[in-house]
Design brief:
Structural class: alpha+beta
CATH architecture of the largest domain: 3-Layer(aba) Sandwich
CATH class of the largest domain: Alpha Beta
Number of strands: 17
Strand content: 25-35%
Radius of gyration: 21 Å
Number of domains: 2
Order of helices and strands: HHEEEEEEEHEHEEEHEHEEHEHEEHH
Shape: globular
Helix content: 25-40%
Bound molecules: zinc ion
Amino acid sequence: MVDKKAINLLKEMLESFGPAGFERETATIVKKAVKAYADDVTVDKLGSVIFSHKGTSERPKILLAGHIDEVGFVVSGVDEKTGFLTFNPLGGWWDQVLLSQRVIVRTEKGDVHGVISAKPPHLLSPEEAKKVVEKKNMYIDIGATSKKETEQMGVKIGDPVVPYSLFSTIRNGKLAMGKAFDDRIGAFIAMEVVRRLAEGKVKHANTVYGAATVQEEVGLRGATTVAHVVDPDVAIALEVDISGDVPGVRAHEAPSRMGKGPTICTYDTSMIPNQALKQFVINTAKRLKIPFQLSIVSAGATDAGRIHISRAGCPSIVIGVPTRHIHSHVGILSLEDVENAIKLTLELVKRFDKKIVNGFTAF
Ligand SMILES: [Zn+2]
């Protein structure tokens, strides 16, 4: 299982400040952690951290990608009368999950805590109470009473904002709860795989590149530059999957279940995976009795969407961890699923030699 030290690193990563375009704090945590075991660590010019482990052969190059940006906001203005902040989303948000949530605004004078203000029910007409308030009509309250006060606190247009949400484990440590699992859990899995390769002196006839990519939530941007830098022969995007074991979700909309194993994604709106690779992943999981689930994401994209069409194409697959309530302040996932995703990825890395990988695109 994922050990205590790794859980502490995961907590640090999840609680760090890093909305799309502002990932430096999270990237620094990743960079520091991987230095202990990676053969090489670089940061590309968009800000993604790339860390490698050399096996017995330079090729094939295997890319394990997980994005470290989280969904957040940027300040779009300060209300003239009240000093409250308006904001634009960084990534996809459902308006209904926002009211009364705590946020952190990062300013040049430091972090400022705030809450997305909501009218008390006493002031709402019955009609108003039934309606969803739209983001464009929401405000962040940082405790200021005027525009001047807000400006004195250092807040200005373009400042980034993230959910304030602490990490914890529940159900006797079996489940984890917190923000930004999407997709720091993916970056964490890539890091764990490389750490176990190095510390366990595991034999692999390839070179492995872990990547903590940036700006996924605003259009898979980090994956584009990482794919160019690494030039991979095969890629695994490590991601969250939408756990469908939530009331109101129909099975075909989100077939995966928390705790039933990592998912092998068969389709999303950004990629149809290489079928030979998909079958290889399924066969490997079956042979090793690693639990897995086949999934389909009818609306959603991952870094693999860019990686698989980089250069002349790159066989790619998405391995996911079923996660409840993504793109909100608090998600829940199973640490057993995380462990099995690490195991499956590690076993694939051990098997990806020249012959196997060439076979994915052979005619
Ligand atoms: Zn996302």
